[in-house]
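User: Hey, my collaborator sent me this sequence without any context and asked if I could get a structure. I don't really work with proteins. Can you help?
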Amino acid sequence: MKRYIGVLLISIMFVNCKETTSAQQQIKIKETQASEIRDIMSLLASDELEGRDTGSEGLEKAALFVEKEFKNSGIKPYFETYRDVFDAKGTETFNVVGYLKGTDEKLANEFIILGAHLDHIGTGKEVDGDTIANGANDNAAGSTAVITLAKQLSALKSNKRSILFVLFGAEEKGLLGSKHLAGILKEKNIDLYTMVNFEMIGVPLNNKSYKAYITGYEKSNMAAKINEYSGSELIGFLPKAKEFQLFQRSDNYPFYKQFNVPCQTISTFDFTNYQYYHHVDDEVSEMNFEFMASLIDACVPSILKISNTATKEIKLN
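Assistant: No problem. I've predicted the 3D structure and written it out in structure-token form, which is a compact way to encode the shape of the chain:
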């Protein structure tokens, strides 16, 4: 029997453009448990997956796990299968793409993408006999967020717009998976509203009033709208993200280039709170599961609102 622990009641305001008043709908959201995050992370960043390098058996195992999670959650394949296969500099690899159709006949033709890269670098410089770069924070953490959000949103079935849940391949090879999928979706002429990417969210920020930052903060009103929708200071501005041009360095960027709509990455890596970037010590033991669960749950109301507003309120500046 399924046990639903810590049910969080939130009120989502749906605005009808023809009405001067707003109807309030109560939606029950199952609170994510830290143990659920730990279980997913422990699989994705395990030694068995050998660092999830492009073309590796470990990445294949990770993809099979994601596909099983999608299927069990009622997330359908967007293509004939969950795989979007492409060539990564001579190596065949793939994106994993799940699809949750919108509930509104008209708005279902507009799409939101929630993404994170599934691949990592495989191996790194040996430390105490260990050479497996498990990639817990980079980016099993972001992948876990997408898998968890897929479960949450599929259970709610309250998204008027359609949502694609994408686990990208070959990000570490130069954003190759996101470049490929952005091109395919552009050819299909889909109506992309926005793309929210998750990257390195495994540990909290140091000494910040906000929970996470967004890359390309000044390029759109996404941060302001997410905060408005969540009713909290969920997203802030990190100067170093601009200094190091992080907006161009993650899987949001190819979609921004192809579609010219707000496509940005949520992260909590602030250059002071984690020292194991592309390091073999980027292990599950370093992750804060309670923080990850709270961040993911804090994003749900905002994503629901993004998927349900009568008009596209998130816009480029």
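In plain terms: The CA atoms of residues 229 and 248 lie 26 Å apart. You can pass these tokens on to your collaborator as they are.
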